[in-house]
Amino acid sequence: MKLRNFLAAALMMGALAMPAMAQDDSHDPKAKVVLDKVTTITKGYDNLRASFDWTLENKAEKTKDTKSGHMFLKGAKYKMMLAGMEMFSDGTTMWTYSKGDNEITISEIDDSDESIVSNPAKIFSLYEKGFKYAMKGEEQRNVKAKGADGKVATVKKNCYVIDLYPESPKGKEFHTIELLVDKSTNLILSIDIKFKNGSDQIIEITEYKSNTNMPDALFTYDPSKYPGAEVNDMR
């Protein structure tokens, strides 16, 4: 399966509700206060760059694979780079580049598509549509962070722990999304997508940089940067 399809499946906006929450239609006001702050802060930046580690873990099979990536956000524009794939958009058109295949796929942005892969900025506002949410508590957790030397290390941070559950769980592939939010900055530290089959996909954001020099050319396709690439125009 190509990574873009894998990402779309992994980050689809839905989940199978946990039994304990199946009858709970509430939206925890304590969780909403924190989530609203996350959205307000991230939307307040002119642009935002995030470095992250993406881990796929199957506890039953005792397998774990981690890859590092980068994400660039500027209004409706975005670019995501992960494991030999690039996905970028100027807000209207989306380009997906596979380095292994040396192939570019061009498509139009579908505003009705709720997948994060169509707009990674949705990662900071998951709760706004289609989810119930609950504050699990405040804990000190081990999280990844990039230090001044540029190396990623594990550090302890005080976090809000919030669980998201789908309002319409039927047919979804995973049951819970656990968010860790830094209490001091109100920025998301990690997103743990918990699948019904027992596997997890974890996005750990190791560094944020806001309001940097981020030219619009970063979010558009320049054929000279992809010599010999096969172009599939799906528009």
3D structure, described in words:
- The chain has one domain (3-229): outer membrane lipoprotein receptor (LolB), chain A, CATH 2.50.20.10.
- The chain has two helices and twelve strands; from the N terminus they run ααββββββββββββ.
- It has helices spanning 3-10, 29-43; strands at residues 48-58, 63-74, 77-82, 85-89, 93-98, 103-108, 131-146, 152-166, 174-182, 188-195, 199-210, 230-233.
- The two termini are 22 Å apart.
Give a quick precis of the structure:
The protein is mainly β and 235 residues long. It has helices at residues 3-10, 29-43, and strands spanning 48-58, 63-74, 77-82, 85-89, 93-98, 103-108, 131-146, 152-166, 174-182, 188-195, 199-210, 230-233.
